Amino acid sequence: MMGGMSVLEAAVRANRIVVEVPRTGVEDWVVAAEVLLQEGLGAWAFPVELVHLLPEVLALHGHRARVGVCGVTDAEGVRTAVAAGAHFVLAPVSGSDLLAGAGEVPLLTGGLTPQEVADVLRTGADTALVAPADALGAAYARSLPPLFPAASLVPWGRLERYQCDMWFQAGASAAVVSEVILRPEDGAGANAPDEVARRAASFRPLNVN
Amino acid sequence: MMGGMSVLEAAVRANRIVVEVPRTGVEDWVVAAEVLLQEGLGAWAFPVELVHLLPEVLALHGHRARVGVCGVTDAEGVRTAVAAGAHFVLAPVSGSDLLAGAGEVPLLTGGLTPQEVADVLRTGADTALVAPADALGAAYARSLPPLFPAASLVPWGRLERYQCDMWFQAGASAAVVSEVILRPEDGAGANAPDEVARRAASFRPLNVN
Amino acid sequence: MMGGMSVLEAAVRANRIVVEVPRTGVEDWVVAAEVLLQEGLGAWAFPVELVHLLPEVLALHGHRARVGVCGVTDAEGVRTAVAAGAHFVLAPVSGSDLLAGAGEVPLLTGGLTPQEVADVLRTGADTALVAPADALGAAYARSLPPLFPAASLVPWGRLERYQCDMWFQAGASAAVVSEVILRPEDGAGANAPDEVARRAASFRPLNVN
Which chain regions cross the lipid bilayer (chains A, B, C) (predicted)? Predict the structure, then answer.
């Protein structure tokens, strides 16, 4: 991590929207990646099951995008992500073993409840993921951030554009968006490039600090 | 805490409904406070962001109402509340550092999940807040209390009257009601005094042991 | 526990559906039990409040059904269940004190959030209950299991047949079904035997490994 930078900034630079790649993959990833870049969404998180794709993704787009690994729940997963060259790692849980495995790579840990967020912050972190943020409904977007005014909160889940808006208005610092941009609601397959573009464009205005 | 009294009773005496003051404040608080007292709701919790209001509130109504601070998530917040003269402190999380900060002032700690409630009770507490209780839906009001028959559970959140009813019927001991009495559904501004009176009156029958 | 068997298999053998008996009891339990057995549902969990019924249930059906105790949240509850002869014990929380109390009787511990599931697995368990699984909505059934691909997850709650389907499709190993089979939606009394049979039959296809 670089001096003076928050772990969130070290992870995804100026991006506020992180696009999570569906576990089932995206058929034509190179096209989708170019569309995301054109729409200004340059922070991507690959589920740890897809970590084998990272070397190619980094070779093709690693200079233009921040490429991370997400869905990591133990130290082994963190080490796997780091070994694959991930720019950053996202874990929906926390633990000193995970932090030890990350070394210099920015690792954002998380929790779901106020207690779990407090536990993340007690490790000295300035940022906590909230995962899965879609599980607790819209009211939670309003009630959680005011409890931790000094922290950066980053909701993570199947968040529509309006839900990201709610989180940001309540004080969240960024959001990890699962599926919504790259997959249709029914979860079958991936969106066509023009649909990805349309959805990415709707999130673009949020992707600024 | 006084000998033989539960921490809940030490905190709010005979009240079962604690009215949380909105973070955004209430324009004419003195009028609202008088209305609450007329309707028999004499336990109020101020978010820690409004702790600067406590000395005046205590001077005006401290002899007729129990005035606490809520939304505290760390030991510093507990100490701030105690220093301001709070009659009681409510934390949606738990931790030995919070308990140490409270000294003789009744502190109710809490959690959201069954595990977190169990963790609160393992600290020796007889009471656990459930926060935010509105996040987990109506079924949770029925399924949580039977798991902890020996404990006092106190749901906390944007709870309508019927939701408080459900919690009480399932065995909860009290409820901390956010917004509903003092604020309209759309969250804009505060309710007018007659609307506060109407809503407070609907909760009044619950405010008895 | 027997060598080579997972704790889940040691607890409920080949069953994937565990039927939870309502806390309020079932008026004519013997008839209901026969119906469940006819429909192939041979794993039952009695809330710890009904632990006094276990000796009779075990005497009548203990050779044909797996009979456990659920809703246990502390070591005393575990010991009570073991002393009553429970074939297995289900706890919605975890803790080393609970594990110590179980001795050789299969004990499945649980949690609600990803962090709590991770904590269960960190105790060395291969199985984690998810309780109450109905509190976090349908999306959670899809998002939780992929985070723990090596673990057996067992959702527990008021789960309709389609919800169990969702959990199983996402990788869950079994489900503890509260109320749905033995009680009507309005929660008043118990279902008549033919209604129990109809509901049990709808779950039967899921009850295979």
Answer: none
Q: Which amino acid is at B88?
A: F
Q: How far is B111 from chain A (nearest CA, A)?
A: 6
Domain spanning C7-204 has what CATH number?
3.20.20.70
> What's residue C2's pLDDT?
47
CB contact under 8 A, A143 and B132: yes
From B16, B66, B40, select the one nearest B171 (Cα to Cα): B16
**CB < 8 Å to A140, chain B:** 132, 135
Total-model pTM: 0.96
- List chains touching B (3+ CB pairs under 8 A): A, C
For residue B51, which residues of chain A lie inside 8 Å, CB to CB? none
The whole-angstrom distance between C53's CA and the closest CA on chain B is 18
Residues in chain A closer than 8 A to C118 (CB atoms): 73-74, 93, 95
Are residues C143 and A136, on separate chains, in Cβ contact within 8 Å? no
pLDDT of B201 over the 70 cut: yes
Residue type at position B69: V
The answer, yes or no, to whether residue B54 has pLDDT greater than 80, is yes
What are the extents of the domains in chain A? 7-204
Q: Tally the C-alpha atoms within 13 A of residue B126's C-alpha that lie toward its C-beta.
A: 12
Answer whether C118 sits within 8 Å of A71, measured CB to CB: no
ipTM of the complex: 0.94
- Reported confidence tier of residue B1, pLDDT bands at 50, 70, 90: very low
Which chain B residue has the Cα nearest residue C136?
B136
CA dihedral C156, C157, C159, C165 (to 10 degrees): -20
